[in-house]
Write a structure and sequence with these properties.
By secondary structure, this protein is α+β, with helices and mostly antiparallel strands. The chain has a three-stranded antiparallel β-sheet with strand order 1-2-3.
């Protein structure tokens, strides 16, 4: 019994820490949205989540070399929208253009990288919630799943 109770406590603690991290991330993300002045291209802060993805050119987002600049490239935040009614389904939108990456102040580059990662962190939660809701809409499987064998 204590083993089950310990697992429950551990799970509760983990969920709680994720929710706290998510709330702090949203505050940070809103601040970075304003700092990077993305209102002109995006509109309201909550509209940032209408993008299917947000990418970056000129700086690596790969885990092993995150933040490393790509000499000779241009620094740009790119939002990707999906329109199922359009002939071309995916549309890239420049949300912020900053010029040659090596000429952009390091603090600005770090702010941009932090914004992208913070956006992806929140977007992953929203995707998780979306699929959870979809699963809830499906009929529950029969108690006897022996027919699948």
């Amino acid at each position: 019994m204590s083993s089950a109770l310990e697992r429950l406590k551990e799970l509760t603690s983990k969920i709680s820490s994720y929710e706290l991290a998510r709330k702090e991330n949203m505050r940070t993300l809103a601040d970075l949205f304003v700092t990077l002045d993305l209102t002109e291209k995006v509109g309201e802060f909550h509209d940032i989540f209408e993008f299917k993805a947000i990418n970056l050119s000129g700086i690596s987002l790969a885990e092993e070399d995150i933040g490393t600049i790509k000499e000779g490239k241009y620094l740009q935040i790119i939002g990707i929208k999906y329109d199922k009614t359009a002939k071309v389904k995916n549309r890239n939108i420049s949300l912020g253009y900053y010029g040659r990456v090596e000429r952009v102040d390091e603090a600005v580059r770090n702010t941009i990288v932090k914004f992208i990662i913070a956006w992806r962190f929140e977007k992953s939660f929203r995707t998780l919630e979306h699929y959870y809701t979809m699963l809830e809409k499906l009929p529950k499987p029969e108690a006897d799943s022996a027919s699948l064998s």
